[in-house]
């Protein structure tokens, strides 16, 4: 699995916003969704997924076939070539799939124009979904859709390079001060301490660790320009300018996992998708995973998640909800975890997951203190501007970067 959340977020906004823009201006999806004629007979569900590869496609198709066989419905699972574009076209054209993956980074765009059926309270035991995942798919106080699975960020350590630098388990950093001290030891040995992605999806973790974030919890107000976020960005800037952390492009790599796999950095900060990427591309790299170092305000990480969206215009809503119920059952989520490496969104199978994948415990435990993506509509250009600022952080002014985000976000939300 490649760095999926990073790739998804990069393509998330333009197509969705453009194709859904007319809905935001008055021809909304919700105008007719209540009046969509519902079929109570056998359903022919169309399911569109953004698949990470053959393993995920087969696992979802097998699960859908099992559900269809037991329920008397049919369910056709199609892996999208470009989920954002295909879904946007289907929604704008009035012929959406019944069920589809929705990334948390795009969720608010779809929910805000009435494209999604808010069925969340019709799924059994919604309290079993991790709270941070429920929050990611709540809009205007409603849980719209059931979290499918999730990823979080953790710290990966190349154990061979670690030993080569003369470090032991006592040097594993658990605080910012320890991260700095360990990185200084590694740099003194002539190695790059940390490969760090130059995006909000990596740098943002430091904001959370200092008690900050970009938006209010309800997604209504930008909250970037605060002392907490400023201190976090200044800390990251210090790491980069002092050579204690380097961006992937400085290491001639496409993403941090590649730099880490090629032995160009002793540590990196990535999600659990790095496991599959290293197995595929750098199978000889020995590494361990530990929680991200805590900041002054405590532990913090970022979560990346998707939900099972149901189209407001589906004529098979009742059957679609039952399909999602089956897909999010604990046993089925564990089957998906074994098939293609995702982490279950239900707390009740946490112990099963850790027993099956003990090395991934830092990832799944991180959900307890994780922050999801920006949960507000029409933020794509705002976030792109933020990314540009973070990419130039070594020579930029953190205060200006944060103030610009708040100014741009207010303009977008007030549009």
Automatic annotation (TrEMBL):
KW Transport (keyword) present: yes
A molecular function GO annotation: maltose binding
InterPro entries: SBP
GO cellular component terms given for this protein: ATP-binding cassette (ABC) transporter complex, substrate-binding subunit-containing
UniProt feature coiled coil, ranges: none
CDD domains: PBP2_UgpB
GO biological process, one term: maltose transport
Alphabetic keyword roster: Signal, Transport
Signal peptide: 1-23
Highest taxon, organism lineage: Bacteria
Database matches in PANTHER family: MALTOSE-BINDING PERIPLASMIC PROTEIN (PTHR30061), MALTOSE_MALTODEXTRIN-BINDING PERIPLASMIC PROTEIN (PTHR30061:SF50)
Protein family: Belongs to the bacterial solute-binding protein 1 family.
Protein name stated in the entry: ABC transporter substrate-binding protein
